[in-house]
Write a structure and sequence with these properties.
mainly alpha
């Protein structure tokens, strides 16, 4: 069995990878002036929702916070407030490091998309 703290890191890593891949693809679609595939958008929406809920569950197990009744509804409706609040209450200021990792992944994906576009598609 995976240690509780380690499962939280694994889920965070998967969220970072998901964020990076989606936003890189999205930026390339925008740079090529092509609408993204509906399947691409749907898979991102479902994977992000499930990933955040699984990550919050792993975080709750490692921090001893009482489980919520419906994590999916709460994450979907109030993720912008709930996730930073949860991380601050359970981990203090160190809890914001995962959010900075996700934001860093978003920024890195935009840079990678711009480089890929400049290398492969700028000649055409």
């Amino acid at each position: 069995m995976i240690a509780e703290g380690k499962s939280s890191l694994i889920m965070l890593g998967l969220l970072v990878v998901l964020t990076f891949v989606y936003h890189t693809g999205q930026a390339i679609y925008v740079l090529l002036h092509v609408d993204p595939s509906p399947t691409f958008e749907f898979l991102h929406l479902v994977a992000l929702s499930c990933g955040v809920v699984w990550w919050l569950r792993a975080e709750a197990k490692s921090s001893g916070v009482k489980a919520l009744y419906c994590e999916g509804l709460l994450v979907t409706a109030g993720w912008l407030i709930i996730i930073p609040y949860h991380l601050l209450k359970t981990r203090g200021v160190k809890g914001l490091v995962p959010l900075f990792a996700l934001i860093g992944s978003l920024i890195a994906s935009q840079v990678v998309a711009a480089v890929v576009y400049a290398i492969f598609f700028a000649q055409y």
